[in-house]
Each structure stands twice: as C-alpha cells, then as structure tokens.
Amino acid sequence: MVAHFGGSSPSGSPSSSSASGRRDGESVVNKQTALKKGPWTRAEDAILVEYIKVHGEGNWNAVQRNTSLNRCGKSCRLRWINHLRPNLKKGSFSPQEERPILHLHSQLGNKWARMATHLPGRTDNEIKNYWNTRLKRRIRQGLPLYPNDIAGPHRPQPASSPVQQDRAAVRGRSISHPLPSQSNPTLGPSALSPQSYSHLKTATTFSYSTVPLLSPSGGLAGPYSPTILSPTPIQNRCRDHIYPEATASSFPGFPASSFQFSPSLSFSVNNSSLQLPELPSNQIMPSHVQDPMTEHETRQNTGSTIALLDDLLGQAQALTSNKNLPEQVNHFHHHPGARMVIKNEVREEDRDLARLLQSIPPAGLDGLINDIGYNHDTQQPHLDLDGVANEDNSLGLDIQQLALLFQADPASCPWTSMPKIF
DNA sequence: AATATAAGCAACCGCATGGTG
DNA sequence: TCACCATGCGGTTGCTTATAT
After folding, report:
1. Domain residue spans in chain A?
2. Among A28, A228, A311, A378, which has the minimal tally of Cβ within 10 Å of its Cβ?
3. The Myb-like domain covers which part of the protein (predicted)?
4. Is A73 (CB) below 7 Å from strand C?
C-alpha cells in the first residue's frame, strides 16, 4: 500500500525506505523551503536524540539549523515529547490509569496537558487520543448525552438558549427553573444516535465546575451562602440526562426542588491517594447549547469557594517568586484556623486541587482545611482536613464522612448508587 | 476471503502566551 | 508599545491495524 500523508505529501512508514528515501533526497534540495512532514524514521529519531543528549531540550528550531534533520522545531519537540524522551510509558492504559483520567477530565475538561502532569509517563496526546476514542465509543453505544429538545444537527435554535438563561441568571436576573421530570417528553433522557455524532464534533467539554450556582433567591452563591442552592437549567440537564436514573428522590437530605447538583462530593480514599470523584465522562453538549464561561466568569459566578483557594495560591505565587524562599507556613486568609504549607515552587497541581475543591459546598470547607499540598513522590495532591486526615497526609474523607459534613444521610448517600458511565 | 467499520495512534495545524529586543 | 520568536496546547486529520459482517 502506498501511504499518503497530509494530502499531497507522500511519505512512507518508518520502515518504508523507498518513500522516505525519496523524500529525504527531496528535502536536501529544498531544505530552505520545504520541511519534511509525516512519520519519523529511525534515522531521524537518532539524530534528534543525539542532538538533545548534547544540547538538552529546548531551542527546537536550532535542531534543524544545526543538524541534518529537515524538520521544523515544532515537529522535533513533538517527536521528543511524545515518543523519544525517557520514562515514557507505552501501550494501552491500565485500569489504574483510566480511572484518574475520567476523574481528571470531570474536573479539568479537555486540559490534556494538565491531566498528563498527573499521569507520569503519559503524554497529553495519549490521554487525548484515549479520551476521544472512548467518547466516540460511548456515543456510538447510544448512551444519553443530552435531551431531545436540543439534539440533532438541524434543530432550530431556541430563541433564548439555556445558556443565555444561565448567563442572564448569573447576572442577577430572576429566572424560574422548573425542575424537569423524567416524564417530561421534551427533557427526558435521550439516546444519541451515531448519526448525530458528526454534529458533536464541534462540541466542547462541559464541566460541572463551570456551572453557575444559584441561591434560592436567584442571586449568586457566595462563599458563605447556604449550601442548598437552586440548580440552573444546565445543572438540571446534568442531573436528568447524564445521570438519567437519578431522580430528586435519589438525593436524600436535599429538598427536591433545590439542591446543589454536585456529585463531586463522592470522594473516597483508596491506596492512600486522593481519589477524585466519580463523575460522568461524557460531559459534552452541542456547541449551540453549551457556552462555557471564561475562567474569569466561572470564578465570579461560582464564587467563592475557589476564591479562598485562589487567594492562597496568589499568596503562594507571590511568596514563591523568590526561589530562595524557604518553605513557609501561611494562614488561610478567611480561615484563621487552617494553614497551608507553601513549597518553593508554584505548582499547577495545586491549582488543579483548588479546582477540585471548588466543587465542595463552601460551608463544607469552612474551618476544615488544615493543610494542602502536593506530594511529588506519589504524584498526588494531598489535603488535610481537621479531624479526618490520614496518617500519610492523604485526603482522609470517605463518602460517609463527607455525607455527614454536608448533612446528608450517609446510609442512603445517592452518589454511591450512581450509575457508572464507563 | 473480501469488505466495512471501529479503534488506535502519530502528526500536523492554528492559536495563545510569554519572553525579548 | 510593538513586533518577532519560541514554546506549548488543544483540535483535527488521516493512516494503520484490528475486528465484525
């Protein structure tokens, strides 16, 4: 078979000497004008590895200038990052790796690079490919993604989309949010047909953490507002269609008409690492429905819990801008009883953890956080909460403890019976 | 065995960001 | 302040292989 890569650019597989040879010859002539594309050959790999051995990573464009490689800097970087650098894991993802991916995606969305920092030896590209493959599979299996009223490539767009309503709501306008029932034909769970998939290719990630929370009065949920919050339309759809089996009665301890839909409460402890909550993996919505807020808007709208942690992270960044700064202990600005150990470098992992904590009702955090940090040995964030910390500084909360914290009945905690979405 | 479809994967592209002169 | 450059990220494409019909 003659393979063609990138349209008109012929190239062979790495073992195809004829194709690559012809291409190589061509590249020598056109070195100033046409850089080689397509699969890398072993010879090219060897050149790149040897160069990096001597000069180290970075300055990728210099590779092409200083070697016989006729690849652009971006291509060299990509090849090194994804295939040639040491300690890369190869092969399919293990179940131990898959679960964190699901959890991370539920918290971070399509932040592949960020996710990769939590999965040693794995690249963002691998994670992205894994996720996209899985997403396609689940869609093909017809699992519910969103309701019929918004599905389909040719449906007329409503005059006021749910997102617009959400946006209006977070700007303080009072909008009623009738809870859709399972029997509501327009909002009932729908199975997405494979034919609908092409439409979804434009969909982007939708994360619970971006959903604005409304107080019962319709205003924003502040950091110390009651934890019982009115769900927005988007949250309603999450509850009714991503967890279609769950009904209001599945959430004991919360009024049926007003609760914060936050499955993120379902922490558990396993193998001394922070287990992120089990969340649906298919958190996507069609592009004409979802309208993800900017990070700034998200912070503004969800307020608040995150503000506390951002406050701390801001302090950490300020403090750690001095590389020689010794490890310091700071006090929570809003939580005098809590303390945070600030290491000597600012870590994205901390920000990830902060995002995770964003999903915890503010009152649940109040006075609880004792220590927050990141364990580089285990590559896991750790969080000490007063009275519930484990010996190894991992998160010491199990689902029953959390249920108690948030005054739900642990014996009938709904998240333990949530259907798995993978 | 031939064909169709799905899955897995590698690589490219466009864009955003940050540093520097 | 601006332009330029290097780098990094996420989306997308298209090829190869595996599996189903």
Report:
1. 4-84, 300-396
2. A28
3. 32-84, 85-135
4. yes
